[in-house]
Specification:
- With 215 residues, the protein is an all-alpha fold.
- 69% of the residues lie in helices and 0% in strands.
- It contains nine helices and no strands.
- Helix 2 packs antiparallel against helix 3, helix 6 runs antiparallel to helix 8 and helix 8 crosses helix 9.
- It is globular.
- Bound molecules: protoporphyrin IX containing FE.
- Protoporphyrin IX containing FE binds next to helix 2, helix 4, helix 6, helix 8 and helix 9.
């Protein structure tokens, strides 16, 4: 292990908390995270209004109080406006994430055994939140998973927005109708993620503080 770099060492152990005041989340992560949160809420709210105009499932419509826009045309305008925010901000975050090495350092490796162990520890209330700069395996899986869901929701969205211009993409999803279902289930995945994610942020408020102030 002598070859382990200082950087790797500083990110591979949750035994040591970072020095008080050390930066946990750099500014670019915090800015893109909160822009993404705003864009996602606008996309989901307006998406529910659009869905209600032509539901995929007989048993499901979204309550108007939770939907954004009030009616179909306004919801479409919200959806396509927030789309630019989501996509441009997402490209900035993903580019910085790869180029800076953050994704590799923070999200990898993800091993099934470690995920199960951390999940069991979390359910018994024994998971350490001492070192906010190291994500546990459950966090890694959730964050990598939601990034993937983000890519799928954007690509399936493009497929149903411009099925003629993006006809190969639409075909990749199995056609317009299937792409609509894929878009819906990607939204469901992101909403499920958000329910857990926001609950955890409230249960561990210092993680919320770090995502706002950086330290
Ligand atoms: C009100 C809404 C939200 C709150 C309060 C919130 C809170 C937080 C907090 C506190 C962290 C740091 C977690 C930690 O240290 O373990 C975090 C990280 C993260 N959040 Fe959120 N979040 C919100 C919305 C979202 C949304 C909409 C998404 C994506 C769909 C998202 C994706 C992520 C990801 C990927 C990370 C890891 C970022 C990185 O380290 O590069 N969050 N969030």
């Amino acid at each position: 292990m002598a070859a382990m770099s200082i950087e790797a060492a500083s990110h591979s152990s949750s035994l040591h908390a970072p020095a008080a005041g050390a930066v946990v989340h750099p500014r670019w992560v915090r800015i893109t995270h909160w822009i993404n949160a705003l864009a996602m809420f606008l996309m989901i709210g307006s998406g529910w209004q659009i869905y209600d105009a032509s539901p995929l499932f007989d048993f499901l419509t979204f309550p108007p109080e939770l939907a954004l826009g009030g009616w179909l045309a306004a919801a479409l305008l919200w959806h396509f406006a927030a789309m630019w925010l989501l996509v441009i901000n997402g490209i900035v975050y993903v580019t910085f994430g790869f180029v800076s090495g953050r994704f590799r350092r923070k999200l990898l490796p993800i091993r099934p055994r470690a995920v199960l162990d951390d999940l069991a520890a979390a359910l018994r209330g024994r998971l350490s939140h001492e070192d906010l700069s190291v994500y546990n395996s459950v966090q890694r899986l959730l964050y990598a998973g939601v990034l993937l869901a983000g890519v799928v929701i954007v690509l399936s969205g493009l497929s149903i927005w411009k099925p003629v211009q993006f006809k190969y993409l639409t075909a990749l999803f199995g056609g317009y109708d299937t792409a609509r279902y894929v878009h819906f289930f990607a939204m469901t995945t992101i909403v499920a993620f958000l329910t857990i994610h926001i609950a955890l942020a409230l249960i561990v408020p210092k993680s919320l503080r770090a995502m706002i102030l950086g330290r």
